[in-house]
């Protein structure tokens, strides 16, 4: 299974292509899409969507995993991030790619074993779980990798539960 994982944002948007290869999760690609604050929001939104479209075309993911919106203190920022999420959902709909969403706590729990893990703990665990053969410069990129790892872990556990249920029946 190949996942396009996205930590949505319009100033910085973390993206990763993570794949289950045998018994190991493999990082195929990751980056942080950055847009200029000097550009209008519509331009920035289009840049993020174009980058995601390019990733879909280049890597043919089976699904998109995205972080659920977390309402912080800045409501204007939260609304803009919601708009980015909507644009990505539209892209997914137009390409018939299923979307899975995870809360920040679910991501931290799956990636680091604790829903209250900090960014340093998550990053350290990601290096233990996935071979990351490059320097990661932004937390947004780590967040996207963690979202991908979360989806792969939960997809495995769901498949295992289904298999166990079929065996019992």
UniProtKB/TrEMBL annotation:
Binds 2 Mg(2+) ion per subunit. It is found in: Cytoplasm. GO terms for molecular function: crossover junction DNA endonuclease activity; DNA binding; magnesium ion binding. InterPro entries: RNaseH-like_sf (IPR012337), RNaseH_sf (IPR036397), X-over_junc_endoDNase_RuvC (IPR002176). The active site is at residues 7, 67, 140. GO terms for cellular component: cytoplasm; Holliday junction resolvase complex. The RuvA-RuvB-RuvC complex processes Holliday junction (HJ) DNA during genetic recombination and DNA repair. Endonuclease that resolves HJ intermediates. Cleaves cruciform DNA by making single-stranded nicks across the HJ at symmetrical positions within the homologous arms, yielding a 5'-phosphate and a 3'-hydroxyl group; requires a central core of homology in the junction. The consensus cleavage sequence is 5'-(A/T)TT(C/G)-3'. Cleavage occurs on the 3'-side of the TT dinucleotide at the point of strand exchange. Belongs to the RuvC family. Homodimer which binds Holliday junction (HJ) DNA. The HJ becomes 2-fold symmetrical on binding to RuvC with unstacked arms; it has a different conformation from HJ DNA in complex with RuvA. In the full resolvosome a probable DNA-RuvA(4)-RuvB(12)-RuvC(2) complex forms which resolves the HJ. This is Crossover junction endodeoxyribonuclease RuvC. It comes from Candidatus Kaiserbacteria bacterium RIFCSPHIGHO2_02_FULL_55_25.
